[in-house]
UniProtKB/TrEMBL annotation:
Residues in Caspase family p20 domain copies: 486-621
Keywords: ANK repeat, Apoptosis, Hydrolase, Protease
ANK repeats mapped onto the chain: 323-355
InterPro entries to which the protein is assigned, alphabetical: Ankyrin_rpt, Ankyrin_rpt-contain_sf, Caspase-like_dom_sf, Pept_C14, Pept_C14_caspase, Pept_C14_p10, Pept_C14_p20, Pept_C14A
Polar residues composition bias: residue spans: 459-473
Ranges where the record places region Disordered: 433-473
Lineage top rank: taxon: Eukaryota
Entry keyword annotation includes Protease: yes
TM regions (residue ranges): none
Keyword Nucleus (UniProt): no
SUPFAM superfamilies, alphabetized: Ankyrin repeat (SSF48403), Caspase-like (SSF52129)
UniProt-recorded name of the protein: ANK_REP_REGION domain-containing protein
GO BP terms: apoptotic process; proteolysis
């Protein structure tokens, strides 16, 4: 018994010692865990501070995947800590992008359900908000509030505008992508073309989001007494962004205000612009989503700090048009370096992408005038542009610069081709800026810094208080045809619906009535673009051949032509190798259409550019052009006929005589001069038209005119259109890929500019 008692006592003593050892070890572990938590929280704070300062070198050394995903005691990540500040310099963009590269979650939330977007909206930190993905900007916190609601409650105008303006972009609200059946698609397109679709359901969804109290962003603005912001939201809700890529919904007064500001921006009248611009009217969109600021950065260089500050305190520097062309894209294409610096400092993203994946740096490689491309690329690289990004074709800025023979820009980008964006910080010192034209902005050998470059203080040579100078081109004015205001007529003849074609002998129908589906979208886009270019647009649809002839005769006799500087005509119809077909299937030779406007017959357009865009097949037979049409070859117009009747059913047409007495001496004014004919296809080829989205030729032509009218002449733009279409094949109805080759017949004596700011 004594031995047993000793054994039990020994066992209990050992158990107690073991328990104390275990408890002591646990206390040590807990102490170490607390220490690690404190260290990690301190590291988060340190990393956030470096990002806010824009110190990428230090950020790259400290940031690790585990750290960027971890949270502090309040449940906030480093991205949230950065968002919860009043602002960051432009160098912070690369730091923030690096956080995403390491796995930072833009949708992560803190203890109250707030994401980085919510925190940025409260602080009006538009740089962080602009860099977040679209879907992360519409999440709801525990109170059911979206970042837009937070921006409204805190009176954060910049972030509120950024979020509202996102809903103007077609890629973010394109309900067409949700259409699942052919019947649904048909109803959808019909509603789009006829205007019956008064509201976009995706826009309605975002505007209609409610918090836990059942209040929308608009209702919260009214509740807080922010009447100006509430009115702004109401207007954005009123806008329609339809599937064909247009914005409607401005009132007559708003449209008048927009046109006035646009005109002042294009003219470079900054002093008057500053008197008229307000927070409410500065971002009014055109039908393509273009704002006053976009026109301004394309037209004027402003080198006065106070002017940029005043403008960018009102206007949205992150705003993009319907195709996601941001203000930075527009500035880069124009080579407007002072605008690029000001926009980036105001929170715009240097790496924003368009629908086709094009960044501002890629835009500079393709569209910026050669003499300004190097300096524009330099500013973008210094501002954090990623040289490794590719467009939808898989091309980098360097590859595109090579394609367009921009040697200086190629030399600038070449050293970075073997380097990764996040492994390299460009060494952009004064000595690398060859050909810089703003020598007094920096001192010799001084590296680029936001303090020096934020608002370059260069006194304007004109003595204007605004410090604005109108953009200049590479070419002298003598090389261009004069530009007038208005520029001239833009005639659109679209045969969208064809009659039933009957064979004369048998009297039986061999071609059913046909609609050229998709042509409506072409007409609307051409109208929109040429109205913005200050043309008087006139549309005539579904005319018979005789009616086309009569209408063109009326046009050529118009006295208004004397006041115009140019003439544009779009012909959209079925066609064969040398003609188009009216709605009655009667052929109308293209040469006869063009000849009407020769100087012999139309003195008002003598020595003025006359440009024809023809969207029609050019095959030898109509059947080859349209496989859905079961017909024999339609006979072509005989050569040399002065009055010809071509039979298709019972239709006939009378044409002008081919040889009237000349009105002017041929030696003084060649009749065939000053014409440019642009065909959607080459002789013997079909012209492709998408039944849902319009014809590639017209669509790309209009987009390129919008992008390049300020820096390139029309013939050059047509070359770019041809280059794009040849490199980007389209899928035909049978599922095959086909490249499109356009053709231009250039008989111009000078260059043609569609830039309305050139008007006297």
């Amino acid at each position: 018994a004594q031995h047993q008692a000793i054994a039990v006592q020994f066992f209990l003593s050992k158990k107690s010692a073991c328990f104390q050892t275990i408890m002591g070890s646990g206390s040590s572990v807990n102490s170490q865990a607390k220490s690690d938590t404190v260290d990690e929280s301190a590291a988060l704070q340190r990393l956030a501070k470096l990002v806010i300062q824009g110190d990428f070198g230090q950020v790259r050394q400290l940031a690790m995947r585990r750290l960027v995903k971890s949270k502090d005691g309040s449940g906030r990540t480093v991205l949230m800590l950065v968002a919860d500040t009043r602002g960051t310099p432009l160098q912070a963009e690369k730091c923030i992008l690096y956080l995403f590269e390491l796995g930072a979650d833009p949708k992560a939330s803190d203890a109250e359900g707030n994401t980085a977007a919510h925190l940025a909206a409260r602080r009006d930190h538009v740089r962080v908000l602009a860099l977040l993905p679209f879907e992360a900007k519409w999440l709801q916190n525990e109170r059911g509030r979206t970042p837009l609601m937070e921006a409204v409650l805190f009176g954060s105008w910049k972030c509120a505008k950024h979020l509202l303006h996102l809903l103007r972009q077609e890629r973010f609200i394109d309900e067409y992508r949700g259409v699942s059946t052919a019947r649904q698609l048909g109803r959808f397109l019909k509603a789009s073309y006829t205007g019956d679709m008064s509201r976009n359901p995706m826009r309605q969804k975002f505007f209609g989001m409610k918090d836990q109290n059942g209040q929308t962003a608009l209702e919260l603005a009214k509740f807080k007494g922010y009447s100006e912001l509430a009115s702004y939201i109401e207007r954005e809700m009123r806008l329609d962004v339809v599937a064909i890529g247009l914005i409607n919904g401005l009132t007559k007064q708003e449209e008048a205000d927009r046109e006035k500001l646009e005109c002042l921006a294009r003219e470079g009248n900054v002093a008057t612009l500053l008197r008229l611009v307000t927070r409410a009217n500065c971002d009014l969109p055109s039908r393509a989503g273009h704002t006053m600021l976009m026109h301004l950065v394309r037209s004027v260089e402003i080198e006065n700090a106070s002017v940029w500050k005043q403008l960018l305190n009102l206007a949205d520097p992150t705003c993009a048009d319907i195709n996601a062309n941001t203000c930075v894209h527009h500035a880069a294409e124009a080579g407007n370096d002072s605008a690029i610096v000001a926009l980036l400092n105001a929170g715009a993203a240097a790496n924003a992408t368009k629908d086709n994946g094009e960044t501002p740096l890629i835009a500079a490689a393709s569209n910026t005038p050669i003499r300004r491309a190097f300096l524009t690329g330099w500013f973008l690289l210094a501002g954090g542009a990623d040289w490794s990004l590719k467009d939808s074709r898989g091309c980098t800025a360097y590859e595109i610069a090579l394609e367009y023979d921009k040697e200086d820009l190629t030399d600038l980008l070449q050293p970075y081709q073997s380097k990764k964006f996040f492994d390299e910080t460009p060494n952009l010192s004064w000595k690398t800026r060859r050909g810089a034209q703003t020598d007094d902005i920096w001192d010799e050998d001084e590296s680029w810094s936001p303090e020096r470059a934020e608002f370059p203080e260069v006194q304007p040579s004109t003595g204007s208080q605004s410090g604005a100078t109108t953009r200049q081109t590479n070419w002298s004015e003598e090389e261009f045809y004069p530009v007038t205001n208005p520029q001239g007529f833009c005639i659109i003849i679209n045969i969208g619906k064809y009659e039933e074609l009957k064979h004369k002998e048998g009297g039986t129908a061999i071609i059913d009535p046909e609609i050229r589906e998709g042509s409506a979208k072409d007409v609307q886009l051409v109208r929109q673009v040429f109205e913005e270019l200050c043309f008087i647009v006139k549309v005539r649809e579904d005319l018979k051949t005789q009616e086309i002839d009569d209408y063109l005769n009326d046009v050529k006799r118009s006295e208004e032509l004397n006041k115009h500087g140019s003439f544009v005509c779009f012909l959209m119809a079925h066609g064969s190798h040398d003609c188009i077909y009216g709605a009655d299937w009667v052929p109308y030779p293209i040469d006869r259409i063009v000849d009407k406007f020769q100087s012999y017959f139309c003195q008002a357009l003598s020595r003025k550019p006359k440009i024809f865009f023809i969207q029609a097949c050019r095959t030898n037979t109509l059947a080859a052009a349209r496989s859905t049409i079961r017909s024999d070859r339609v006979p072509a117009m005989g050569q040399g006929q002065t009055r010809s009747t071509q039979e298709a059913g019972e239709s006939s047409v009378t044409f002008d005589a081919a040889a009237l007495a000349p009105l002017r001496n041929r030696d003084l004014c060649p009749a065939e001069g000053d014409f440019l004919r642009c065909f959607a296809s080459t002789p013997g080829s079909v012209a492709i038209r998408d039944t849902h989205r319009g014809s590639p030729f017209v669509q790309i032509l209009c987009r390129f005119l919008q992008q390049h009218y300020k820096v390139h002449d029309v013939s050059h733009i047509m070359t770019k259109v041809n280059n794009f279409l040849q490199k980007n094949s389209v899928e035909t109805g049978d599922g095959k890929l086909q490249s499109i080759v356009t053709q231009k017949v250039d008989q111009l004596a000078r260059r043609v500019s569609f830039d309305p700011s050139r008007a006297n």
